[in-house]
Amino acid sequence: MTGATSLAAREPGGTAPEAIVRLLRADRALQWAALLGVAWLALYAVLTWRSQDDAELARFTANVLYLLPVVVAAVTGCLAARRRGRGNRTGRAWVVFAASGLLWLAGELVWSYQAYAAPDADTYPSPADVFYILSGLLIPVGLLVAFGRAGRPGSRRATLDVLLVALGLATLGWELLVAPQLDDSSGFDRLITVAYPLTDIAILVCLVSLGLSGHDRLPTSVRLVGWAYLVFAATDCGYSYQTISDSYGDASWLNIGYQLSAITLAIGGMVALRYPEAEAVPAVLGRDLTIVPLLVAAAAAWFVVAVQIAEAGLPFVPVVVAAVIVAGLLFRQLMVTRDRTRLAAELRDALAEQARLAVTDPLTGLHNRRHLQEALDLEVARARRSGAPLSLVVLDIDHFKQVNDAYGHAAGDAALVQTARRLGAVARAGDVIARHGGEEFAWLLPDTSGEGAAELAERLRAALAGTPVDLPESGPVEMSGSLGVATLRAPDDGTALMRDADRALYRAKEHGRNRVEVASDDRFTVPTAVPAG
Q1: What is the pTM of this model?
Q2: Domain 20-283 belongs in CATH node 1.20.1070
């Protein structure tokens, strides 16, 4: 298993910045991609600034250089779709994202051709507009495929939130972006004119509603796609607004927003291409974000009413009073929401603590025997599927009964705790360490051969014997351990692996303790007399 695959398989949840930063730190290729993206945005910003008074440079920047990130985003999206398309929902969503990226690229190619072939012709609407709108319509489809049924189906509150957001954004979009253009268009022109802002509103509604649903785990590539399309939709709304005022041109600063969207999509495609990601998992107890749809709907309603009153020349005092009342109600809702969120967080933490205690040894803080058995069964099944090696080390503290008899049980407990700490210091990320019972510990080593396990066991033996343990009242006391190592063989199960490790441990104790013994192919037999520990 490569390091990249291992990282993706264990990627935990968390906020979007944490997950992405964690991935960037671990993947040099993604680091270079991000740095190149930032450099390209800086270069494009400089060229846009220089283009303000240079029409030819503006046309070259907006119609030729502009294409580069869009091409990269389309290519990485197609590669990700090809590799992951037959997998889970995340992979199937990338098929839709790839199709959207290709349509976007087709639209840009047509637009660039028209910019040079017929710069002064009135080509609106053109095939480019059709490609753009089809590309935008696929974006909500891809997001819904990615999330599938992860958005808490059947939740009446969630449905109401989505409807409020949709109504608010649709109202604002119609008032600001659609209505001003209807008088100057008709027929197919009017359809295209209305389709642009409505498609952007659909994207924004989809992103906001999915954000409100809350998720404990979200694939990093889908996070990046969501950010990219959020930037894209916001930029496109700005484009529609500039079109109304006839202020959009090749030197528009809005083009940087499209470039940022394409670069983010390209990085998302790289993540999907390099890492097999799991599906989105909804939060069992997520944050209650009811205030968000209420704010959107209230702001939209107040804005539309204010515009209508201003056009009619009516006084604003009743509107202001109504706005204050609504704001007070919303603030009260916010306080209630915060109390509910705090209680939900406390309940979630309590449940997590109960789950932790159920599989944790209270003295050492290591996993207990129950968790070890579950992990052993899982790792044996995984090793059989993948063919990867699996080893087990069993440790027994030498002469532990003498420590208890000579210094008391408190000293014995201290010896167990310090042994657990030394075991934890030697163990690797991904290993499973547990207190197996009494003075015995077990160390499960996935993806580790018998030779590698023996080396790790020897390192642990040296760590135990090299430094005395500091016992209460009695002070430093020499301590050592006997260790048995076994590696899973094809016909064996977890029980057989544990039996082989135990027999190797008995052999270590027979041969004088403070040593490592590795189970041989002919299996050890249990000695007739096992030295007391």
Answers
A1: 0.55
A2: yes
